[in-house]
C-alpha cells in the first residue's frame, strides 16, 4: 500500500472511492500551508563573556579554558570559593548577593543537583531568581540570555 500524504489517519474515502483529506485546524497537525520556518537573527555579543565550549571539569569562555567554580557575568569572570557541590555555604551565595544580579544560573556539574534552599535564601529573599541546572544547560542558557 502506498502512502500519499503524511496525515493518513485523517483521510476519508468519498462515495466514489477516492481518498480525500479533510481540512483540519493547525492544532490537529495536518496544516500543509503552515510556514514552519524559523527566523534567526545574528546576536551581537562582541565584548561579552560567551561560553564557547564545556566539558568534564572545565568550561571555555571566549575560547579560554577555565577549571573550578566561577562567577561569570557579561563583563567579568571571577573565581568562586566552593570547589565541589558539597562545599556550598551561605557565605558563597552572599558573595553573589553583593553583585545584585537579576538572576543566578547555578551550574552544578555534570549532574543536576539542588543545594539546600537555606544556602541561597538571601538571594530569594532579595527577589533574585535562582535557576539550578547542570553546567552544560547553564552555559547554553547563559549564552541565550546574553544574546537577548
Automatic annotation (TrEMBL):
Looking up Gene3D superfamilies in the UniProt record yields: MTH938-like
Database matches in InterPro entries: MTH938-like_sf (IPR036748), NDUFAF3/AAMDC (IPR007523)
What Pfam families does the annotation carry? DUF498
Query: Could you tell me what this protein is called?
Result: NADH dehydrogenase [ubiquinone] 1 alpha subcomplex assembly factor 3
Q: Which SUPFAM superfamilies match?
A: MTH938-like
- Organism, by scientific name, is Hucho hucho
Amino acid at each position: 500500500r502506498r502512502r500519499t500524504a503524511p496525515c493518513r489517519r485523517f483521510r476519508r474515502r468519498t462515495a466514489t472511492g477516492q481518498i480525500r483529506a479533510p481540512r483540519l485546524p493547525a492544532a490537529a497537525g495536518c496544516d500543509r500551508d503552515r510556514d514552519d520556518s524559523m527566523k534567526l537573527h545574528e546576536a551581537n555579543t562582541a565584548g561579552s563573556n560567551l561560553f564557547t565550549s564545556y566539558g568534564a571539569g572545565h568550561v571555555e569562555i571566549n575560547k579560554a579554558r577555565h577549571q573550578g567554580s566561577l562567577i561569570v557575568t557579561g563583563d567579568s569572570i571571577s573565581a568562586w570559593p566552593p570547589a565541589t557541590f558539597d562545599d556550598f555555604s551561605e557565605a558563597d551565595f552572599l558573595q553573589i548577593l553583593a553583585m545584585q544580579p537579576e538572576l543566578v544560573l547555578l551550574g552544578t556539574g555534570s549532574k543536576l543537583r539542588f543545594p539546600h534552599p537555606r544556602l541561597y535564601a538571601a538571594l530569594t529573599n532579595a527577589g533574585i531568581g535562582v535557576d539550578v541546572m547542570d553546567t552544560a544547560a547553564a552555559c547554553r542558557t547563559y549564552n541565550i540570555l546574553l544574546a537577548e
